[in-house]
Write a structure and sequence with these properties.
single chain; 428 residues; alpha/beta; 16 helices; 8 strands; globular; PGAP1-ab_dom-like
Length: 428
């Protein structure tokens, strides 16, 4: 669906090297600040006692430490930036020894000549690179986007492991048996479309992904969204809405229904899409009928609130300010999880049915676990937050947050949602 192609594995490696260089520079800066905060304490005390007689010593100390940390910062960044340059040149020339020789001044040619020829990346390698990239994007995705790092995840729709084409002719070739009901799965923080295959065991049919099993039982087509979870939830929702509009317009058959299934942050992004629909989105307003949120922190996530509180607390004291800055290196996406989107609110003229599914690692009687730990990341109160009184809500016991991605009980709920929708369509 997206005109921009997904970066190659080589480009992602280049982006990773640049990112590591930036990270080293940031880490050196934070350590430098911590060192300065510690050293300032005795200098200030001595200065007050000696009428600032210690100022020359302090100036020399600061100048030396500034030079040392500056050298560490620039050297660290320079080494990885240089490595990224080598990778970029190698990408552009199919990793020819001549380019590496040019980059390194010939000093590594003896070793290069004896290295075995590298094999082409395979599907398994690409999946690992994508998983690592998605995890890093969850924490630093806004920075990667702002710096146009090749490692940034670009939003796109996928099916059967392939990115969806943007035009109708290609979609017709890609989906010769396209159905008029779409189920779009939206992953959570630091994940990608492959997360829906978690816990899948080929020898156990019951563990097949939700999308595959639902396609077996109902006339539906399953599609998966990949997106940069480090970006702001609203920004992702707006872009997702544009992708859905384009998909519906170019789908091989007329789309009569869309079910959005979001895990964790994915539920918030799906909900934000619905809440952002306007009169210009008349096709989507007619098509989207159900949104299923699996362990989504509508009222916020405890860990995100803890990180925000820690940043604020450490930032109050001179000595701990650098630590507060480290906690502050969190993406916009993670910051959005602090308060979530709030409890569901009634939408005027909106007929979408929300299905809120939460879980807890304890049993139904473990009130302490339910209210403080929940599924390990989200409490049931947050996952089921609804001020409309209309949402269908279910809580499962003895299931953790990631279990919701592939679980027999959750599948039964998804199957019920589709049965309700299809039955209602038949009645109409």
């Amino acid at each position: 669906m997206n005109k921009k192609t997904e970066p190659s594995t080589g480009e992602k490696i280049e982006g990773t090297l640049n990112f590591v260089g930036d990270s080293i520079a940031q880490a050196a800066t934070r350590v430098h600040e911590l060192h300065r905060a510690i050293s300032d304490m005795p200098f200030k005390a001595v200065g007050a006692a000696t009428l600032n007689a210690s100022k020359p010593v302090e100036s020399i100390h600061n100048e030396i430490t500034d030079l040392v940390y500056g050298a560490v910062r620039e050297a660290g960044k320079g080494v990885f930036s240089g490595a990224a340059w080598v990778v970029r040149q190698a990408n552009q020339s199919l990793a020819s020894p001549q380019i590496i020789d040019q980059a390194m001044g010939g000093e590594l040619m003896d070793q290069v000549d004896h290295l075995p020829m590298p094999t082409a990346p395979n599907a398994k390698t690409d999946k690992r690179v994508s998983a690592i990239s998605s995890a890093i994007n969850g924490v630093f995705g806004d920075h990667l986007t702002a710096t146009r790092n090749p490692m940034q995840v670009r939003m796109n729709l996928y099916a059967n492991g392939q990115a969806l084409a943007a035009d109708q002719a290609s979609l017709m070739a890609q989906f010769p048996n396209a159905k008029n009901h779409l189920i779009v799965f939206v992953h959570g923080l630091c994940c990608n479309e492959d997360s829906w295959q978690m816990y899948y065991n080929p020898s156990e049919p019951a563990t097949r992904p939700y999308g595959d099993k639902l396609q077996d039982e109902f006339p539906v087509t399953s599609i998966y969204l990949r997106y940069n979870t480090g970006r702001n939830i609203d920004a992702n929702a707006r872009q997702f809405k544009r992708l859905l509009n384009k998909l519906v317009r170019n789908w091989p058959v007329a789309v009569e229904g869309i079910t959005l299934v979001g895990h964790s942050m994915g539920g918030l992004v799906s909900r934000a899409v619905v809440e952002a629909l306007t009169d210009d989105d008349i096709i989507l307003k007619r098509a989207i009928r159900d949104v299923v949120c699996l362990g989504s922190p509508h009222a916020g996530a405890p860990l995100a609130r803890l990180a925000a509180a820690g940043e604020q607390l450490f930032g109050k004291f001179e000595l701990s300010k650098p630590i507060g800055k480290v906690l502050g290196v969190r993406s916009r996406g993670i910051r959005d999880l602090k308060d979530g989107l709030g409890a569901l609110q009634a939408q005027g003229g909106q007929e979408v049915m929300f299905h809120l599914i939460g879980s807890t690692i304890g049993d139904h009687t473990s009130s302490w676990l339910n209210t403080t730990v929940g599924d390990g990341l989200v409490t049931p109160d947050s996952a089921l937050a609804d001020d409309t009184g209309r949402a269908q809500r279910v809580t499962f016991a003895q299931k953790h947050h990631m279990t919701l991605l592939n679980d027999p009980d959750v599948f039964l709920e998804l199957r019920m949602v589709l049965r309700q929708h299809l039955r209602q369509k038949q009645l109409n």
